[in-house]
Amino acid sequence: MPSKSPTEEMPKGEKLYEGKAKVLFRGEDAGTIVQYFKDDATAFNAQKKGTITGKGIINNKVTELVMINLARIGIPTHFIKRLNDREQLVREVEIVPLEVIVRNVVAGTMAKRLGIEEGRRLARPIIEFSLKDDDLGDPLIAEEHVLSLELADDEELSEIFDMTHQINDFLRGFFASVGIELIDFKLEYGRLYDEDEMGYCLILADEFSPDNCRLWDIETGKKLDKDRFRRDLGGEVEAYEEVARRLGIAL
Ligand code: 5GP
């Protein structure tokens, strides 16, 4: 029998969810999910729609590389293995309904909200939270909202802060080593039942790719992320390819 080409898709189970950039299918083994990365691009809560050719392949591979490296420094993640060009197998988790945003440099909504020019380096990184709710446009919330609305408990929140700082420290160096400044990014965490602990533990979920972070060339300041699409700067395919090339990812 001919072997599967790396671009051929695996037979998948039931479709569980279709998001803006990914589709989730039930995996063959219990407790697993197949994440399929699309080329579809949206911005401003899906008011702007388009396609970035090859984006799904790059995001799948960048996410794989980042998740593997984070696991090496002791961050538990949902990533199991990459299946092919556009799919990866991950653990099924209950997603914590928070977008955890990390900022090293002022950009995007922070620049707009506070009237600060983009590019100002922060004295220390900021971790902020948005409620994961597309209908409301993922509104910014305070730590007090997280606890009072029981979106996460005290222990989880403190783990989220610890893991997120570690992830940021590591990834700033990881990208700096290829001439890229990590400006800001978004993470999502999930709860996984741990038989040994007889309780839930938090693990990193979702993806890490130029779709959910800002990456600027250290020398020139050129934007190498989804802002090229959001802001109609052009050259988004080339920017994603440049990130992959610098990270040594074969396409
Ligand atoms: P901002 O709040 O400035 O729009 O975004 C801060 C960072 O988080 C950026 O790197 C942005 O890509 C990421 N981010 C914020 N919200 C979302 C979201 O809903 N989806 C994705 N993919 N990334 C987001």
Outline the structure in words.
By secondary structure, the chain is an alpha+beta fold. It folds into 2 domains: 6-91, Phosphorylase Kinase, domain 1, CATH 3.30.200; 94-234, D-amino Acid Aminotransferase, Chain A, domain 1 (2-Layer Sandwich). Helix content is 27%, strand content 33%. It is built from 6 helices and 14 strands. Strands 8, 9, 10, 11, 12, 13 and 14 form a 7-stranded antiparallel sheet that branches. Strand 4 and strand 5 form a beta hairpin. Bound molecules: guanosine-5'-monophosphate. Guanosine-5'-monophosphate is lined by residues 99, 101, 107-110, 138, 184-186, 211-214, 226. The site of guanosine-5'-monophosphate (5GP) has 15 residues, from strand 9, helix 2, strand 12 and strand 14.
- The CATH topology assignment of the largest domain is D-amino Acid Aminotransferase, Chain A, domain 1
What hetero molecules are bound to the protein chains?
guanosine-5'-monophosphate
Radius of gyration: 18 Å
- Could you name the CATH class of the largest domain? Alpha Beta
- In the predicted model, the low-confidence regions spanning at least 5 consecutive residues are 1-5
Assign the CATH architecture of the largest domain: 2-Layer Sandwich
Distance between the termini: 25 Å
Whole-number tally of structural domains: 2
State the helix count. 6
Q: Any idea what the CATH superfamily of the largest domain is called? A: ATP-grasp fold, B domain
- The helix/strand series, from N terminus to C terminus, equals EEEEEHEEEEHEEHHEEEHH
Strand residue percentage: 25-35%
> What is the count of β-strands?
14
The largest sheet, given as strand count, sense and whether it forms a barrel, is: 7 strands, antiparallel
Which class best fits the helix and strand makeup? Answer: alpha+beta
Helix content: 25-40%
The overall pLDDT average reads 95
Given the C-alpha coordinates, what overall shape results? globular
